[in-house]
Amino acid sequence: ETGVTQTPRHLVMGMTNKKSLKCEQHLGHNAMYWYKQSAKKPLELMFVYSLEERVENNSVPSRFSPECPNSSHLFLHLHTLQPEDSALYLCASSHPGIGSYGYTFGSGTRLTVV
Amino acid sequence: DQQVKQNSPSLSVQEGRISILNCDYTNSMFDYFLWYKKYPAEGPTFLISISSIKDKNEDGRFTVFLNKSAKHLSLHIVPSQPGDSAVYFCAATPGGSQGNLIFGKGTKLSVKP
User: Domain total for chain B?
Assistant: First the structure.
């Protein structure tokens, strides 16, 4: 257990469904991130929150909607996804900037869109 | 365009021998580099890092070498152990130890007993 918890671990959803991914950390970090890992591609940064404010949105389609209600929790709301959105979604947290140890990652949510 | 490249998708090594994983980068603003290790069904975990003011950093069996002129870094694992079998991601960031991490595609290392 890394201190960053993601739920659910696996999710299968239809293209018309609405679902949410949850990430929680109690490491005292105040920056949180969503990454997407697709097969044979680099980890792609999706969103960055620092002190609960979104500071980066890497041209992510609007069918992905992040929410950071406090520095310990991060959500990714999903609606009308496409099959190509199937991937491993990783949450990470850090102190502002990355420090010497980079980010602490959760175990990810394996998403399958059918 | 990929800024961090790991051109070998996989590497197979015999137990006890040296594993060398390579990473190239294109952005000359990158000045802090990290290696992460990922087992199946787990998130990446930090392994070792290096600042651009150094050309080598060692931690036990793991050593990272940085060649700034070639924009190349490598991770050496010696001796390799079966438990080292995992996917290794190279990551880089500009602006000292601040900034977001940019990752490579990863190299899957298999260490055979």
Answer: 1
Nearest to B64 by CA among B21, B14, B110: B21
Phi and psi, residue A78, nearest 5°: -120, 135
Query: Which residues from chain B sit within 8 angstroms of residue A106, using beta carbons?
Result: 43
Q: What is each CA distance from A90 to A80, B28, B77, B109, in whole angstroms?
A: 20, 27, 26, 21
Angle, CA A36 vertex, CA A34 and CA A38 arms, to 5°: 170
Task: List CB contacts (< 8 A) between B49 and chain A.
Answer: 100-102
| Domain with B84 in it | 4-112
| Alpha carbon of B104: minimum distance to chain A alpha carbons (Å) | 5
Q: What is the pLDDT of residues B55-108, one digit of tens each?
A: 999 999 999 999 999 999 999 999 999 999 999 999 998 865 556 788 999 999
pLDDT in tens, B22-33: 999 999 989 899
* CATH code, B15: 2.60.40.10
